[in-house]
Design a protein that fits this description.
Order of helices and strands of chain A: HHHHHHHHHH
Largest sheet of chain A: none
Number of helices of chain B: 9
Strand content of chain B: 25-35%
Helix content of chain A: over 70%
Oligomer: heterodimer
Order of helices and strands of chain B: EEEHEEHEHHHEHEHEEHH
Largest interface: A-B, 17 and 25 residues
Radius of gyration of chain B: 18 Å
Number of strands of chain B: 10
Number of strands of chain A: 0
Chain lengths: 223, 240
């Protein structure tokens, strides 16, 4: 190891930064997985809300989606972490705030994915469910959703990767995720190329396998 | 069995049904013929409320199903519908397609529902396809499964919306044969069809719908051999 570093000095920082980045990766992944999972639940409701016959539910869902899609996620995290606790007089830790931000942000995009998925199902499927006497909810749950969900998988995978990368913005509130850790290392070592190069590699180490798994899943499900 | 009074249906400013009155007696087979866009499918779809009627009333066994208080799902469970495009559920096998409604609506056990499904599959001649998925079936087979699915709710009335129009010619007969058998067993049926041979052979009454109204109604013999209305004559002249 030492001999190798002697011959290739730039390897020194690349290797030394790894433990820091592993720590950052842990938070990046926790925030992403938790956030997207909660975002999926929010998105499912909001997406169905966007095609609801109830004007109120439609309005609430639409306002939510438009506000989130129309503002940068950086503004959203600043709002959730600083403005909201100030307003409501509560205490939010950084990780919780980050999970909430990803959930609410991804939820809005997932709502549109859900809406598109459900709307892509042939009208005849709804009518067939109706015609055999299933209730609206039964038709949605047993007939429409399983078909629509398959079609949602590619865009959902895409959203996962987008949300993963969005967590990098949370370095702005000093969440110790990947970018924050890389930045901290550069500050201490005064080296820039190696740590940031490694940060990029760490993201690719998650996103590329994700893409491959997704493509396999799509093939298997024939979507 | 079914009584329709002053039925109107508009889509926006387009009036598709312009006042239809009709009565279907138990065990009758009614065939509805007419040109595309005449309103015949819309008329059929009003009978199980797939279309909301604009004005008028539809009584099924004395109950006005268009009343705001009517239980739509219960009505639909009693009125089977077969679609031109089959509309089988592609993510379920044949057995699940047939059993889902009895299980979810009639609270049947899976075992009882499956037994019923096998009986129905035998009736439509597809006992060997229980585990197949819709995409593995031919059009004629899909339509026969769709008929079995509708029958699983033990409906009092069966509606058919051009059930053979999407089929290859060689598959039409297998579907019509199943429908004939149903008619023979005494099912009340309303059939929108272009199969004039079927209408002539099986129907008790034939309705010719033209431009949103019943232009002529009568026995198949009368409609096909001695049509009175000029429009009926013109239509039959084109299709026969």
């Amino acid at each position: 190891m030492d001999a190798l570093v002697e011959k290739l000095p730039f390897l020194y920082h690349m290797i030394k930064v790894i433990p820091y980045l592993l720590e950052g990766m842990k938070y990046t992944l926790i925030i992403t997985f938790l956030g997207v999972a909660i975002g999926f639940v929010i998105g499912a409701f909001a997406g169905l809300g966007r095609i609801s016959n109830s004007k109120i539910i439609y309005a609430i869902s639409t306002v939510y989606v438009e506000i989130i899609r129309g503002t940068p996620i950086l503004v959203q995290i600043l709002f959730i972490y600083f403005a909201l606790p100030d307003l409501l007089d509560l205490n939010l830790d950084k990780i919780t705030a980050s999970v909430i931000a990803i959930a609410i942000n991804a939820g809005a995009y997932i709502a549109e994915i859900v809406r598109g998925g459900v709307e892509s199902i042939d009208k005849g499927q709804f009518e067939a469910g109706d015609s055999i006497g299933l209730t609206k909810n039964q038709t949605m749950w047993h007939i429409i959703w399983p078909q629509a969900f398959r079609r949602m998988i590619p865009p959902l995978g895409n959203q996962f990767i987008i949300s993963l990368k969005d967590t990098s913005l949370f370095s702005a509130i000093a969440v110790v995720e990947l970018v924050y850790q890389g930045k901290a290392y550069t500050a201490a070592s005064a080296s820039y190329f190696e740590p940031y190069f490694m940060v990029g590699l760490f993201y690719l180490a998650i996103t590329i396998p994700s893409s491959i798994i997704l493509r396999r899943l799509e093939k298997r499900l024939d979507v | 069995m079914i009584k329709i009074q002053g039925l109107h249906k508009s889509f926006g400013s387009l009036e598709v049904l312009k006042g239809i009155d009709y009565e279907v007696k138990p065990q009758e087979v009614i065939c509805i013929i007419g040109a595309s866009g005449s309103g015949k499918s819309t008329f059929l779809r009003c009978i199980n409320l797939l279309e909301k009627v604009t004005a008028g009333a539809v009584y099924i066994e004395g109950t006005d199903i268009t009343a705001p208080t009517s239980d739509i799902n219960k009505i639909r469970a009693d009125v089977g519908m077969v679609f031109q495009q089959f509309n089988l559920f592609p993510h379920m096998n044949v057995l699940d397609n047939i059993t889902i409604a009895p299980r979810k609506i009639r609270q049947m056990t899976s075992q009882a529902a499956e037994q019923l499904a096998y009986e129905l599959l035998e009736k439509v001649g597809l006992s060997d396809k229980a585990k197949a998925y819709p995409e593995q079936l031919s059009g004629g087979q899909m339509q026969r499964v769709a008929i079995a699915r509708a029958l699983a709710m033990k409906p009092k009335i069966m509606l058919f919306d051009e059930p053979t129009s999407a089929l290859d010619p060689e598959m039409v007969k297998e579907v019509l044969d199943v429908m004939k058998q149903l008619a023979f067993e005494g099912m009340t049926m309303v059939v929108v069809t272009h199969e004039m041979g079927f209408a002539r052979e099986v129907a008790d009454r034939v309705i010719f719908i033209d431009n949103g109204v019943i232009a002529e109604e009568g026995s198949p013999e009368q409609i096909f051999s001695k049509p009175k209305n000029e429009r009926t004559k013109a239509f039959l002249g084109k299709v026969l």
